[in-house]
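#struct-pred

JT: dropping the chains for the assembly here, can someone run the whole complex?
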Amino acid sequence: MRTLLKTQDSQSSVGSGFLVEDGTLLVSNYHVVSQYALQPSRHRLVYSTVDGQQGALELLAFDVVHDLALLRLAQPDALAGRGAVKLRPADEALPRGARIFSLGNPLDVGFAVAEGTFNGQVERSFLPTLFFGGSLSAGMSGGPALDDEGRLVGVNVAARRDGEQVSFLVPAEFVRNLVASGRSKAPIVAPAWAEITRQLLQHEANLSGRFLQLPWREAGHALYRIPVPQEQFMRCWGRGSPQAVRGLQFERSDCEMDSRVFVSGSLLTGFITVRHEAYDGSKLGALRFSQRYSDSFRNEFIGLDDRQRTAGQCLEQTVGAASRGGRAGPAGGPEASARSAAANGLPLRAVVCLRAYKKLEGLYDLSVLVATLDKSTAGVQGRFDAFGVSLPSAQRLTQHYLDGFAWKTLRNGPALPNATP
Amino acid sequence: MTERLALIEVLDRDGHVLRSADVLQWPFSIGRALNQQLVLDDPYVAAQHARVTQDDNGGLRLMVGDTDNGVRLQGRLHPRGSSVALVSPSTALQLGLTRLVLRQPGEALAPERPLPVQSLSSSRNAWLAALALLALVMADHALQLDPGADATAWLPVLVGTPGAIVAWCAIWALMSKLFQHRFDFLAHLWVALPWLLAIEAVEWVLPQLAAALGWPLLWRLVVPLQVLLVAILVRQHLALLLPQHARRMTLAVVMALLSGSAVILTFTHNATDRFSRPPYMSTLPLPAWQLATPQPAQALVQQLEGLTQGLQRRVAKARAEAAEAGEDPAAD
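RK: done, full complex below.
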């Protein structure tokens, strides 16, 4: 499958696809046809069969979150008699290690069949994704991965380049859903930003909802409760400065989601990252520590204006994290009580920034920066980013993140009570 | 001795007096011919170029002689054969390329200008400024270094800072040599030190004060204030260079400051939608100086809605620009 520039007839993207149902519908990846979906007036879609037959395609529907697209032959009988790929029934689980065959057009060199093994679902992935132990190359995207009876297991979608034979498939169940919902739709002829926005809003509500339900994990810091996410759908990596260093000592934790939503070549969205650095400046003294601590806080990038998003705009405030790892003050309590609790809580410098998407109305990138302010030679700085979230989700996630910071014990006394009067 | 009725000064290209001629009687003739009372060696001056006469009332008149180029008086050209009354006690004339000043009794003298290089005792403040500046720069460097740093780590600041200041003042002194014909190194150094100290002090004090009070606006003023101080510093150097054009120099610096600021603010606004590049105040206060009362996090969260209104205005503008550029509309 090729996306061609209308005016030049030169290809701007190449991928693979396969016939389903009655042989007039094709399935591929959204990212193979994204240029057409976003700029249909400048592009056209064509297929080219293994034996050289060519023809035009129409885009009926797509699932941007799972990276699938449903297309239709412009001439319905053009490929009559060639059959179609059947989907493997959902209730027939494939054993780990089973042989599967991935088909496609790697690097536009020619049709290829790549043999590999089925390895179940990718662990800690928010979006269900299958782990294919075989080689996928660019150009095979959108091609089918079939079991030994020729039934669809998944759709080729991506591969890791930092490993060997670590590739990924979109499970067949999402193909089933897309075909069912999109087969009778009218072809897309105008930019599909509104539909992408609708799907991304649904995705972010789902992601934010699940994220907010998970309690923060213990970071193991001696002084502070620091918000570190559970690893159900995130992966955290830690590193620290060498012990022998004379200057600032730190330990760092980086948590990221593997699943990201491809919208266009310049826009990946729909994911969350959480990071913190715990600093120990006992070898430095208060003034030197303060200088490095501020430098580190400055060293955070908030995006500039680009084609996709506005420049980030920020709010900043010194806030008090009032309770011991819980909510800051009783919910619905009097404002004065909340103020008093905040004034006596762990002082944090908090910066909350939003970038609005220019073409995905109602979606924002959220960045929350936090620095603890109570110790002269120690501190924690955290950063929470949520890409492609609505305003209500951004508000809830910000509150959730700020609430994750607290003292483990009172500065000069016993463990902090749960609610400060 | 005959009484001096007036004095005519011939100025050089820098406005300094090249020579002067006493006027002992009226009329007084000026030209290239040897029979003129003031002989000008200027190919653009006629043989009998001009004459200054005294009328019956004692007032002076300039009579323009047989010249193609005429006489320029206070910026206005007077052609051959014309005459004009010289009312002002101090009159600037231009004959050909030669500039003259006719000074009459009763002119208002400008006050005595202090010498640029003052005595050592009166430059004590400048020395104090130098010491304070070096102390601040050293303290800044000390904060950058980890404890127990090698002594060589101090070399850049110990050599670099005085070296940079000397180089800066030497460049100005060279320009003084060009315009004033003297190498005014110390004068430029005395001008530079207090302003450099002020620039460094702003860097030290304001961010900490802003962080302690929790006032980001004050923090954002640091860079503009430093730019203003640099502009004042440059203006002071220029005033030393061309003291007779001090007002013009001030105007030039103000214009440069305004146009430079406009360009930078425009670029900054295009990239960030703000007039200040840093997105937030990054200086964190020392715990002992933390004066801002912590607020509940909910208050901050609630303000997010207000933030989106500004962002949506920017989005609407971007869409309007895209539509103008003929891009596909962002609608299904």
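JT: nice. The longest strand of chain B covers residues 17-23. Chain B has a mean pLDDT of 90.
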